Every structure is written in C-alpha cells, then in structure tokens.
Amino acid sequence: MHELSIALSIIDGVTEEAERRGGVRVEAVHLKLGPLSGVDKEALSFAYDLAREGTAIEQARLVVEDIDVVVFCPSCLAERTLESLQSFCCPVCATATPQVVHGRELEISALEIQA
Q1: Pairwise CA distance, residues 64 & 86, whole Å
Q2: Residue of 64, 65, 103 whose CA lies nearest to 81
Q3: Are strands 25-33 and 61-66 parallel, antiparallel or unpaired?
Q4: What is the pLDDT of residues 30-76, one digit of tens each?
C-alpha cells in the first residue's frame, strides 16, 4: 500500500510547514488528486487517518478535491475534459489526444490553520 508512504509524506510536509509558521494548529489539509496519479482516494484517506494519530496534526482532516482529466486536442486547439479514462480522444471531434494537461495531480493545495 504505497498510499501509507504518501500519507506519511503529507503529514511530514504539513508538520514542517506548521512549525515554520510558529506552531500553528492545522485544522484541515486540502489535497488535489487526479485519477492518473496512481493513488486510490479511499486508501489514501484511510492511511492518512491511521498515520496522523499521535502527530502534531492528528486533529487535521484531509479534504480531497478530485481533478478531472483534461487533455489538449491538437485538432480543436483547445483543452477538453475527458468523458472516460478508457478513451483518450477529444469528446468534441474524436481526435486522439495524448497530451494530458490535468489529471496527474497529487499536491497539497491549501492548509486551514488556526494561529
């Protein structure tokens, strides 16, 4: 379960940032997660809940924002949101669209803190 190592990395990073800001209390960790990141959302949430116990951020909840897969269509010259991960084709003109713009995200986007 590589989600546990990811959860531990999130906790380490957030703890360091809280300490850098003078020991603020972290209320929530906001995370952007794309379907092409290779991370299972439920497994990550479970791992985060386990890993945060006994840490400085054990009360901080994990808020996951699901990111759609967006590709750039070379025919339309526009970004398009894929309707299915089964077909990397433009939903407007059906051209193959291998250039992924969004959907690989696995990043902390914000922290809710209380000073």
Answers
A1: 23
A2: 103
A3: parallel
A4: 999 999 999 999 999 999 999 999 999 999 999 999 999 999 999 99
What would the pLDDT profile of 72-84 be if each residue is shown by its tens digit? 999 999 999 999 9
Strand extents, DSSP E, the chain: 25-33, 61-66, 70-73, 78-81, 99-102, 106-114
Q: What is the CATH number of the domain that holds 73?
A: 3.30.2320.80
- How many domains, the chain? 1
User: What is the radius of gyration, based on Cα positions, of the chain?
Assistant: 17
Burial of 90 (0-12, 13-18, 19+ CB in 10 A): buried
d(CA 7, CA 92): 38
The domain of 21 spans 2-114
Residue 97 identity (one-letter amino acid): T
CB 72 within 8 A of CB 97: yes
DSSP 8-state secondary structure symbol assigned to residue 76? T
